[in-house]
Amino acid sequence: MPSVTGKRVLVVGGAGFIGSHLVDRLIAERPASLVVVDNYYLGRDENLAGARKALPTLRVYRIDASDLASMQQVVRSEKISVAFNLAVIPLPASLDYPAWTVRTNVDITLALCEVARGGDLETLVHFSSSEAYGSAQYVPMDEKHPTVPTTPYAASKAACDEIVRTYAETFGIDTLIVRPFNNVGPRQNDRTFAGVIPIVARRLRDKEPIEVFGDGAQTRDYTYVEDTAEAAVRLYETEQAHGQAINVATGHELSVNELVARILGLLGKPDHPIIHTAARPADVRRHCGDVRRLKELTGFAPAPISDERLRATLEWYERSDRG
User: 43, 42, 47: which is closest to 320 by C-alpha?
Assistant: First the structure.
């Protein structure tokens, strides 16, 4: 059975939201070494503060993961066996900078596939996105759901999945595609291109109306970030999962309106003003993941977001604002 224990492991995008939680989870598996590559476009050094304390030997390279020569140098010098690729230009950026988003995401994936093709990696674990599916044609959305991306970001993620799949098919590299649905939790970017919970938290802090794009009835399958990290490690440790693309979700959908109402209720601010603005271009209407394959393979499936975890996330943003 594959295991990261005793392996030399690389997390690309490891200073970011999901990446830093994955770093924390991997430390518990006692790898021989753990290395992070991040260009800090969205990553933050403070996201790795706990990891540095838990693993003082953690090494961080501030480089562009789309640069093949740089990635080859890191992988070879650090003698990396397993790479987890989470580096990405996010969806909102693709609405303003579509060509750059697509090129960068594809080039990151190509660089890592080329490193693997050259024999410098034992396994490449690539993080996809539920956005590759587009809006749900049926629910729950299983791994056979058609990929009909609706934004340049989504198209780049679908393309990256195909690049990984075809490199595995053509060159025999060992791969695994983890396909998360919408993640929430501490450390999610709250600056440019922020997600819905950081945006709500910031507007509450600034005593501004909460902005909801469109009618707010669009749904997402919100997954707690620590569960995504847990699923990724378990999938890597499951040999039968390799060579596949596997959903990581809860199987429960929640509208943006419902999420905002829950947040306001938890904070005791049910009457805080909400405004609806124009819908985001090409926004998916409905997402709800089928996680039966994940559970069959690993015995694990993320739970729907609890009030406790939602409250912990909001408290993290409050602490972050204060200091």
Answer: 47
pLDDT per position as a tens digit, 197-247: 888 888 888 899 999 999 999 999 999 999 999 999 999 999 999 999 999
Which is it for the CA torsion 5, 231, 2, 11, positive or negative? negative
Mean pLDDT of 50-60: 98
Rg (CA), the chain: 19
- Alpha-carbon gap, residue 227 to 247, rounded angstroms: 12
At residue 192 the predicted structure's pLDDT band, cuts being 50, 70 and 90, is low
Which listed residue (153, 167, 236, 317) is catalytic? 153
**Residue 323 predicted with pLDDT over 60:** no
pLDDT at 322 over 80: no
Nearest Cα residue to 4 out of 246, 179, 176, 226: 176
* DSSP secondary structure letters along 286-305: ---B--HHHHHHHS--PPPP
pLDDT for the residue 126: 98
18 and 229 in contact (C-beta within 8 Å)? yes
Residue 153 among the catalytic residues: yes
CB-neighbour burial class of residue 23 (10 A; exposed 0-12, middle 13-18, buried 19+): buried
- Domains present along the chain, CATH in parentheses: 8-185+224-251+288-303 (3.40.50.720), 196-218+253-287+311-322 (3.90.25.10)
Structure-block tokens of residue 230: 């847990």
